[in-house]
Amino acid sequence: MPEQTKSAGPAEPAQSAEPTARRALTAARLRGLAPGTLTSHQVAQWLASGESELPDPAEQLLRMLVRSSRLSAAGAARFTDPERAAGLLDGDIDSASAVRAAWRLNEAVAASAPHRSVHRLRTDLLIGHLADQWCVPPGDRRALAGAAGDRGFVDVAEAVEAARAFYLHASDRVDV
């Protein structure tokens, strides 16, 4: 399995997960990957320790496919057309207000003292926060990597950097 699989572009969301899984397994088989043919190296690289014991080889392969895929969002109509992108967001969550609130808090913290900045947050603190949000043990590197990959991040470090700007707002542990 390649380190990363590049996609020509994001596909439209499927109506249900089953047809998507079936299409993914068919596409993998056409490229020489099939359940039960995974090497121990591939399993170790892409699956967390508990996942490598999953009884269904198809589920293992699907998780590996999700984690090895990278979709380019640049210019993709699915992400840039408001009507098509609307289905990707939870309408019950006011994302724009949450982002503005996080940035305002970060600015207030930074203005309170020269040494206070989200850029100075400890990585282990951010990893712990992500582990808590993802319901994985903070010390399980493979589980963290799998959870990051499931969410479209290349690795845990990329997820940590994405979370950095929102940690103070999410933690409610800030005094300004």
Overall mean pLDDT = 82
Query: How many independent structural domains?
Result: 2
Spatial ordering of strands, largest sheet: 1-2
Query: Overall 3D geometry?
Result: globular
Helix residue percentage: 55-70%
Number of helices: 9
Secondary-structure class:
mainly alpha
Q: How would you sum up the major sheet? A: 2 strands, parallel
Q: Which stretches are poorly predicted, pLDDT < 50 over at least 5 residues? A: 1-14
Instruction: Report the end-to-end length measured between terminal Cα atoms.
Output: 49 Å
Structural account:
By secondary structure, the protein is an all-alpha fold. The protein has two domains: 13-69, no CATH class; 93-171, no CATH class. The protein has nine helices and two strands, in the order βαααβαααααα. A two-stranded parallel ribbon has the order 1-2. Helix 1 crosses helix 3 (57-68) and helix 6 (95-112) crosses helix 9 (156-171). The longest helix is centred in the middle third of the chain and has 18 residues, at 95-112.
